[in-house]
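Obj.: predict assembly geometry.
Materials: sequence records (below).
Method: joint structure prediction, all chains together.
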Amino acid sequence: MDIRIASQIARTHLLAKKRQTLVAMLGVTFGIAMFITMISFMQGVNQFLEDSALDASPHIRMYNEVNTQRPSLIQQLKPGQFNVVYHQKPKDEQARIKNGITIAERVEKEAGVLGVSPQVATQAFYNNGPIQLSGTISGVDIERENRLYKLTTRLKSGTINNLKTNPDGLIMGVVLARKLNVQLGDKVSVTTPVGGTRILRVVGTFGFGVGTVDNTKSYANLSTVQEMLQKDPSYITDIHVKMNDPLQALPFGKRLRAMYGYYTEDWATANTAILAGEKIRNVMTFVVSMTLLVVAGFGIYNIMNMTVINKIKDIAILKATGFDGKDIVAIFLLQAVFIGLTGGLLGLFIGFGLSYMLSITPFDAGDFLSIKTFPVIFDGKYYVMGILFGVITTVLAGFFPSRKAAQVDPVSILRG
Amino acid sequence: MSTVLSASHVNKYFYDPEKFQVLKDVTFDVQKGEFLSIVGKSGCGKSTLLYLLSTMDTDYEGQIEMAGTPLKGRNQDFLAQFRNEHLGFVFQFHFLLPEFSALQNVMLPGLKLGKYSEKDVEERAMEKLRLIGMADFARKSASKLSGGQQQRVAIARALINDPTIIMGDEPTGNLDKANTENVFSIFRDLAQKGQTIIAVTHDPDFADGTDRVIEMSDGMIIASHENKVQ
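Observations (raw structure tokens):
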């Protein structure tokens, strides 16, 4: 088989029917362009949702699960007997992590850990005049928290230094601040469940783009919240951990749990709904893209079939003059590959153009999502995938007509 | 003179619509440089015989040997290669590839053979076209040539690999008188230069001009006579 002659014949065939070639090519182009656009957009959405969820939540959160269910003493001593205890009160168990600061320091030294932030989190009432809103307040070491959540980039007003210099400072979720009608410098009275009330000054507002956070959460200094709860300076309720690789968080969380005996929750568990949505969108993207490519494939199949039927005399004459089955397959397969490759490449360009246009299209997502245009990911992987799919589909679509061509019996054609 | 083709006890059956013997024990030899014509009425099996000799039809009994190579039971790829090297075809309905120029049509089997470089093949193709008087039309698209011109180009294509045998299936069947004479005289010239030619025809004038005529009827050779060389 001489690929050069085959390609010369294939080229002549393609050029002889320019319009047909173009139509077949555009089928592939359209399929690939849509594939690229869809997958870039869908993955962009996935990435955006995952990022916004992951950015606002720790990879691992270690906390002490307060369990009020406990057996009575007599039950422990004489199990299996008929014991009755009236009005048993839950044990006053503290949500603290013992030696929290030490644990945090040790975890921070482990390989693969990006940062650790020990903190005190509690529910709180925010009062500003007649307005009362419930929310949460986290006492943090703002420097460490910043390393985990890049707070500096999330701040809508103020700076994190304000919090460091002001022990009564408060950095408030932007939506919460709006609801309370407070601005930078305003005072808010914060009441904890144990009754401690303190007037704090708003020194900054932040927005993660995640409703549940921006709506309810505020940051204060660790010691401030400890005082409000009337606890000692070693009182820690939560340890937030961020890893360099989010996937590492799953086994690492289990390890921490075994090591320190406190309950750990990883990001995948905390964001199950988002991950499930991501899977569904991925499947949808692939199904739609595949359908487009299969349709394009059928278009090519049809056109190649027609070409073979039109060229049946030529095939017979080529066979009579000494071209064998492999040459004939090569001639027609090359045409299909050319259509697939050029159509596919054109599709990549158009797909890139469409995704780019989508990525600069303004999109108002309101307060809850922190984006201004549609999220689109530009990743070489998708383009490689697109061209591979395109070529594979066209080769498959071209293969069967080519094989049919190779099986043409020259005698029956030439005898007329 | 040496034998370039020998068919011995060739039987051929058609199975559709019912079993029917087309060729009955056909045996003959062809010498090198012979200009042979096979004649007979329609349906006598002369075309069938030619397509057996062409190696394109492999479903037969008996043995066909060409250029010292037994051809029975060979695979398709071998036969394709063999056709490329040893056989040239001229058909009734010219059968050039319409998208290619006359020159490219002639060159294709030569390029396939791969014995010469592309430049040499082109030179040889021009030489063959000159031989049949079509050199002026070399660059013209095959689909723009007249029937007679196409047939002459087809002869040039048959010649490109210096084949052992040229086979023609009614090579003048579709041509007017002037073109028939033209094509015939080309064959005659080639035969004079030692080219072996086998042509199926039912044109008595054509047959009379050949060296030897094999007459067939009902799948059998009923007569074989040599013409006096004019």
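Conclusions so far: The beta strands of chain B are 3-14, 20-31, 35-40, 61-66, 69-70, 87-90, 165-169, 196-200, 212-217, 220-226.
To do: check interface contacts against the pulldown list.
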